Amino acid sequence: MTLSERLLNPESLPSTLWDTEGKYLRLPTEFAAAYERLIDRYRLRALATSRTEQDSPTGGIGKAETDQHFAQQFDNSAARAQFALTNVTGDVVSVSNALILALSGNAICITDAPCGAGAATYAFLCAIAELRAQSVLPRLPLDVSLIGAEISGHARRIAFEMLEELRPYLESQAIFVEANFRPWDVTNALSTTDLITASIRGGTALRKRLVVVANFSGFLSIPGKLKDASPQLEELFRYSSGTGNVAVWIEPQIRFATAKEGLLHSIGRWAVERWHRFARVISDDGHAMPYATSDIVFKSTLTPDRLRPIRLAVMRLDLERS
Asked: Class for domain 12-318, per CATH?
């Protein structure tokens, strides 16, 4: 299969995910409803609907930062992940193919680090569920061992509650999730060793592995954090490597993520120079760039009267040993 061969044709996407006339993404109805229930449970609707175009919270350890990110950015993050999987613009073929292959059926261990409130992984799983519900993909049993790594205890609690809200919908489409949410500090070696131990226990010889890294640029843009995190990221990818395993790194198109000396270029350079025994970049343009970019708009769950922009930067790393 070449990169030009798309496993998911955007023309086959149902209207529940993609509006062909308006050219905008929709989050699956069940996903949007679950998000809205949690927004009301935590009394965050006023905060969510007060979001302006200037608001771009990145989250944090504390409850206030987590609440703001969940209220104002969670559905953006989910839409960005759904965009990567559905590839509606045709710009991210390699990433979309990797996700469809990984999530098509059988068993998989997903390490989502940092997971936040679960936006990226839940968006992937709900998009797959919706594609099954609309008869675009076959309804094959998918057993998921989810290791959600997150420094914020409040975010981990929301991630757990969000999964419980989504579980009936996922299971109706033969997607069964066993989750382990645990604290993780990417700058701490022992914390990362504990995460890897949990990931190893959550997998078996029959499980594929998918590592999801999403929306990390806000934290890693703090001076010194990327350098401090580098050994732990290397350890995570090395221990996650094996036949058929893959990592997907998703960021918004902010300067730190996409600049020549920024995050995604650094990850791509490390893959070539330091990680080549267990990781390689798979690019849609023959490695001219280690990541792909694309732009779209989506209809927000809580502010459906206006479309919000999604500016995606995404990288695929095949965690194949050599």
From this structure: alpha beta
